[in-house]
Amino acid sequence: LVVVEPGDVEQFLRPLSIRCLPGVGPKTRKALAAVGVHTVGDLADLPRRQLEERFGEH
Fold it and tell me: How high is the pLDDT of residue 48?
């Protein structure tokens, strides 16, 4: 069991692999890796517009 305090959530999540995200399978991981995204932090830092251009608007 891990307890993450509200102020520590971002720090806890940023280094995690995108593999831990529901809905991110092998194809999406490969596409994200192509733009340098390997961790939750990488994904958070990617501009929304770039994500929408690459994966569509949802």
Answer: 92
